[in-house]
Amino acid sequence: MPKALGGKSQVWQVIEVIAGPLSILFEKSWRTGELLEDWRKASVTPVFKKGKKEDLGNYRLVSLTSIPGKMMGWLVLGVISKHMEEQKAISSQHGLTKRKSCLTNLIAFYDGMTGWIDEGRACPP
Which candidate, 38, 44, 33, 47, places its Cα nearest to that of 66? Predict the structure, then answer.
């Protein structure tokens, strides 16, 4: 049935076919702590940016890794990030942290400094 008539797209059909086997591989990898060798391999290709092609500085390296390997990496990162956030292991980290940025870091610093000034632990400029 065509997608317009309520049918599933080809992408969803593929997802349904591979979801089961992938979840089995992810679970096995998670339990054993080992990642399939093909998932660890990357194909690194230099891509020309601009300027003279003879200048190696005018290329950037692009690393192509396997989609299942990336997905496993995202899952592991998610679990580690959630654990660190719940345990408040790194409360002062702002860069590369969800819902935090340079602005939240600046606000936290300002808040800390004004608190010290109020307590007499720091002198205003």
Answer: 38
Q: Which two tokens stand for residue 14?
A: 């593929």
pLDDT digits (tens, 9 = 90+) for 102-113: 777 788 888 888
What sign results for the dihedral spanned by CA atoms 87, 114, 123, 106? positive
Using the structure block, give the residue that is written with the tokens 């608190």. Answer: 115
Spatial separation of the C-alpha atoms in residues 30 and 70, rounded to whole Å: 14
- pTM, two decimal places: 0.51
C-alpha closest to that of 43 among 14, 67, 26, 15: 67
Instruction: State which H helix or E strand residue 81 sits in.
Output: helix 67-86
Phi-psi region of 99 (alpha: psi -120 to 50; beta: other; left: phi over 0): left
